[in-house]
Amino acid sequence: MVAGRRLAGRHSLAMSSPLLTLLAMPKPFDGHIGMIQRNAITSWTKLNPRPEIFLFGEEKGTAEIAAELQIGHLRDIHRNEFGTPLLNDLMQRAKAVGNSPVLGYVNCDIILLQQFQDAIAAIHQNNSQFLAITHRWEIDLRKNLDFKTDQPLRLELLPPGVPGDHTAIDAFVFTRDVYSDVPALALGRAWFDQWLIKDALLHGTPVIDITKVARAIHQNHDYAHIAGGQRGAYGGEEARRNLDIYGGVPHAFTLLNATHELRADRSIRPIRYRPQKYRVQQWLWRTFVLGTAPLRKRLGMQRAKNRV
After folding, report:
1. pTM above 0.85, yes or no
2. N or C terminus: which one in the chain shows less Cβ crowding within 10 Å?
3. Cα(73)–Cα(59) distance, rounded to whole angstroms?
4. What is the CATH number of domain 20-273?
């Protein structure tokens, strides 16, 4: 429910079909990054009901963990000349293989707790279209988690952490009709994540912040797996290309641009307060970009996008 009314009509879900399909693009399973990816992906398999899970790519160790955890593995995915997988192909493939009404792209360093799954179920119960996002909780974890115990994984069982920044977005959950025209953004480089928020807003999709109910648990790591390290991920050639496709001002669309929030009582309410600079930014966007989009489309003035 949103402000006393539904965002859209009730969507019934057949019991034989999973609610959620999780999509991920692992890095090679080496050293610390391999350990935290194992922690993260295994946590997804413990959600109840268990979601569909598909890992993409042929990075070292991906086939082995997919077989071990009995999850899907799609080897081939389109890449740019740097060898980086592309968002548009992942989304297209996901819609083809996923059997659920809700899809989620999650970074492979993110542990998901049961509250995350429950939050998505609460939103989907009454809303047929949405994008759900959440702030992350950052922890330092240097060991494999024990998933053999009958005790569900809880935040209290993990190392202490701190809230992440509003620009760090690691989990996106959306109904399968939200994205229809996805550009060739490089995954794991800056701006592909913020494009997902921007495009949802552009098309009038409610962007729902579930932070008050569930966070994404981020296991801190270095950037040795990317050429140029963290600087390469955020300021290299691929990041610059992503920014060109993303358009607009850097960090113009972040977690602060959610339109609604899920509360502990499972109600969904509009977010009415923003810091002044974000309210002005959002007003400018809605007035001069969203407001003129139909006219610009009729006049053929919309910016061409780099797609494959």
Report:
1. no
2. C
3. 11
4. 3.90.550.10
DSSP-derived secondary structure letter, 69: H
Confidence of residue 145 (pLDDT cuts 50, 70, 90): very high
**Three-state DSSP class for 137?**
strand
Cβ(160)–Cβ(212) under 8 Å? no
In whole angstroms, give the CA distance from residue 141 to residue 157. 11
**Alpha carbon distance 62, 51 (integer Å):** 18
How far apart are alpha carbons 39 and 278 in whole angstroms? 35
Tokens of 22: 């999780």
> Which SS3 state, helix, strand or coil, does residue 243 take?
helix
State the Cα torsion 52-56-61-63 to the nearest 10°: 60
CA 32 to chain centre: 22
The residue among 132, 129, 136, 105 whose CA lies nearest residue 119 is 132
The CA angle 232-234-239, to the nearest 5 degrees, is 85
CA neighbor of 147 nearest in space, from 46, 57, 218: 46
Would you list the domain boundaries of the chain?
20-273
- Residue 230's CB is within 10 A of a number of other CB atoms, namely 11
- C-alpha 270/C-alpha 64 separation (Å) is 44
| Cross-strand bridge partners of residue 73 | 55
Cα separations in angstroms, 120 against 8, 108, 136, 242:
15, 19, 16, 28
| Residue 22: φ, ψ to 5° | -100, 135
Tell me the C-alpha to C-alpha distance, in Å, between residue 264 and each of 86, 161, 171, 175: 36, 21, 19, 22
Tell me the pLDDT tens digit for each residue of 46-90: 999 999 999 999 999 999 999 999 999 998 899 999 999 999 999
Distance CA 234, CA 241 (A): 11
